[in-house]
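INTERNAL TRANSFER SHEET
From: sequence group
To: structure group
Subject: RRM domain-containing protein

Please process the attached sequence and return the structure record in the designated field. Keep the field labels unchanged so the import script can parse them.
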Amino acid sequence: MTNMRMDEAPKAREREVDEREVLGQRRKRESSSSKFEGIKRTAKTNLVVVLAPCSDLLPFRYSNTATDTLRIFLVNTFIQHSSRTLSPLRMSRKLAPEANRILFVKNLNYNVTAEQLFDLFGKFGPIRQIRQGIANTSKGTAFVVYEDVHDAKQACDKLNGFNFQNRYLVVLYHQPEKMVRTKEDITERQENLERLKQQHGIE
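Return from structure group:
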């Protein structure tokens, strides 16, 4: 019994030494692998948040115990992602469902020329064509066709209600379905007016 206990003592000491070495190696691996753990990306600000020991961030000093202190620093990654994301200007120019490249303009001066309309509406972007109404029922109106729908939106926002040649313009997106309904309503009203005239003997 005494011999067995004396033989087991060195083994216990060796086992204790081995466990200490394993723990020491494990701590070294954990400290090296976790040096730059905790990287987070925020979608709203396009920033990268990195957690690291202060000893690894030479420009920064947080406290005397630099090796035990974690410091958060921000790295702006906007330039890296700018090619894959929309610019703030383009994102702010959201389009309405009825938006399109064709604008319908009303309440124009009867004497306005095509050149004057090109000068006015051309300030917002390239124009493909402008069609003026010349019939008695379409005088004072025009269709303006832009190359880009965003330019049409900007012109509609800026020129609707704009005072041009002593007239306040009405600028709308061209919507054929609504225009057809409007023509039908006008025709129906004219027919009702003619019937009333006949009933009351009015010429």
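Handover comment: Residues 10 and 16 are 10 Å apart (CA to CA). Residues 1-28 form one domain.
Transfer complete.
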